[in-house]
Write a structure and sequence with these properties.
By secondary structure, the protein is mostly helical. The chain contains three helices and no strands.
C-alpha cells in the first residue's frame, strides 16, 4: 500500500487491491471451516507474518534469526488455533 503513493500509482494500487481481495476471500473460506474469532486470529497472524516476510525478502526490513524465530512462532500459534476442536474448551474434550 505504501508503494501506491496514496493510490496514485496504478501498478502498486492494482497489486494492493488484488492482494486485499485474495486476503478477504481467504478469511471468508476460513470462517466456513472454523469459528470467526479463531479465523480472524489466524488471518491476522498469517497476514502479519507474510507482511514482515515480504519486507525482509525485498530488503525493506533487515532479517535476523530472532525475528525469524518470532515470526515462526506467530505462524505456529495461528496453526495451533486452527487445530483446536471447534466446540467448547480443550479441557472439556
Amino acid at each position: 500500500m505504501g508503494l501506491s503513493d496514496g493510490f496514485a500509482r496504478p501498478l502498486p494500487t492494482l497489486v494492493f487491491a488484488v492482494a486485499a481481495a485474495l486476503s478477504m476471500a481467504g478469511l471468508e473460506l476460513a470462517v466456513k471451516q472454523i469459528a470467526l474469532g479463531t479465523a480472524y486470529a489466524v488471518w491476522v497472524g498469517i497476514g502479519a507474518a507474510l507482511t514482515v516476510g515480504w519486507a525482509m525478502a525485498t530488503g525493506v526490513e533487515p532479517a535476523s534469526p530472532l525475528k525469524l524465530l518470532f515470526i515462526a512462532g506467530i505462524v505456529g500459534c495461528a496453526a495451533g488455533l486452527k487445530l483446536l476442536p471447534s466446540g467448547g474448551s480443550a479441557a472439556e474434550d
